[in-house]
Amino acid sequence: MSHTLSFERIEMNATRIISGLQSRLWILPALSILAIVIGQLCASLCAFIEGDILGIDLNVLGILFYSLLLVSLLLHKKFYPEEMFMKAIAAVASVGVGAELILMKFQIENNVYCPKCLVSGFFFLVLFFFIARHLKKWVVILLIAAGLIFTSFTFTGSVIPSYADEPYPQFGSEKAQMKVIVYSDYFCPHCRKIDGQVNTLLIKLKDKVSIQFIDMPLHKGSLEYAEVFLYAWFASGNNLETAVRTRELLFEAAERKLDQAGAINLVTSKGIPLTIDRDKARSIFRGFYNEAIRTNKVNATPAVIIVKGAERKKYVGGKDILQALEDLSKP
Questions:
Q1: What pLDDT, on the 0 to 100 scale, is given for residue 87?
Q2: CATH classification number, 2-159, choose in 1.20.1440.130, 3.30.70.890, 2.30.110.10, 3.90.550.10
């Protein structure tokens, strides 16, 4: 008997929640907007994918689309309760489902998933299932198909830095039993603040450890700067001094808000040769970055991972990073 009552209570609560949502559908697009905004504030959790439709960034487009649904639902509730108005909202949502399916397909194909995209998409699909009943099924199917076709021709997406199948820049001692992995973003002020001290310590350590620099694309321009770093590596090989000087200049370029062409001009003007091969740079990006992030569980910059055999220690923040590197540099 108690189990029956418990099930009935759950069923009643679920019915109450569904009924409440049906009378407050505007909550769902509002939650989708909130998911995107929080995702942007915690950009490192969603640094694997970027894209646009007709040249409009997906984040901007998502906020505009969900805002349109939010405003429309509020207007419907307060001023335009007519069925025809809700049918128009359902039609817009149906086209959006087609677009959402293309974005999900892209993530599945690349085996990289965007948390804010999935969360905002979930709330949107819940909204769709509530309002799709206002249209005939064949109309919904046609509109979803239209969204699929339109988005498949207008969507451009990329998985951001994934250093992989090609050799990845590695500096210092090739025979070292210890590795130092530096995670940073050229547009991160905290990274820029400690960069000079980190580089000084790394040069002291270059005969004792192997060193890798991994660029986390928390800023949209970071990917292009990461390519410039690789261009320098293509020309100079595993020369640590050239690598750290290139990075210093890229931090300077970010502070000056230069685009990629400006960053390239700055680096070459300081006598650092570049071999520009974007396809090769992008091929290096695919794979290594995502694997490194999963292995080291880095979601903020600056960060340093020190690997000794099976032991792997993570240091986040300037104070801890500098102390860890200073301890390594002691005789």
A1: 93
A2: 1.20.1440.130
